[in-house]
Please model this.
Amino acid sequence: MKFLCVECDRQMAFDERAVPGDGTMAAVFKCPECGHKTAMLANPMETQLVSSLGVKVGGRTVPDANFEGIRSGVATGRDEAFESPPAASPGAVRWSVEAVERLGLVPSFVRGMVKKIYSDYAKERGIEEMTPAVMDRARTDLGLEGM
Model:
């Protein structure tokens, strides 16, 4: 089974997998051309069937490491030699550790949208760093308290 982007008519690529803990499983696919995302939600019975067959949805279970191909071929070396500096775009909002942890509590299939809402809120108001306090204020100002 493959998913096609309706806008671009391109095959979508696997983006992320989430297991919310209620027996369901969600797989998110992203268009490499326009960035449009779509999600597939499997009910508990479908999730159990896929797991019992040994199918691994999404491939890797660990995040990509910087320069992992080169790193695996080097016998010794310093880990910090492989670190890339964070890419900061002009006007980008910095996220505090606490805000990132709080964002991690949001279900993964909507996390990108929630992050964009908070980032846009901060940019519009000239806020340079996202903190839990700013997130609380944004929820109130945007009328999202019940969500």
About this structure: The longest helix spans residues 108-124. The radius of gyration is 19 Å.
